[in-house]
Amino acid sequence: MAKYLLLKHYRGAKEIPCAPMDQWTPEEVEAHLAFMGHVANTFRERGEFVDAQALAPEGTFVRYDGEGRAPVTDGPFAETKDLIAGWMVIDVDSVERAHEAAAFLSSAPGPGGEPINEWIEVRPFLEHTHTDVE
Amino acid sequence: MEALVRDLAPQVLGVLVRRGADFAAAEDAVQEALVEAVRRWPDDPPADPKPWLITVAWRKFIDASRRESARRTREERIHDEPAPGPAEEHDDTLQLLFLCCHPALTPASAVALTLRAVGGLTTAQIADAYLVPEPTMGQRISRAKRTVADAGVGAPGDLSRVLKVLYLVFNEGYSGDVDLAAEAIRLTRMLMRASDEPEVAGLLALMLLHHARRTARWTADGALVPLAEQDRSLWDTALIAEGVEILQAALAKDRLGEYQCQAAIAALHCDARSTEETDWTQVLEWYDELVSLTDSPVVALNRAVAVGEADGPLAGLRALQEVPADVPRRTAVEAWLHERAGDVAIAATLYAQAASAARSTAERDHLTKQAARLRHG
Question: Which residue on chain A is closest to B262 by alpha carbon?
Answer without folding.
Answer: A134
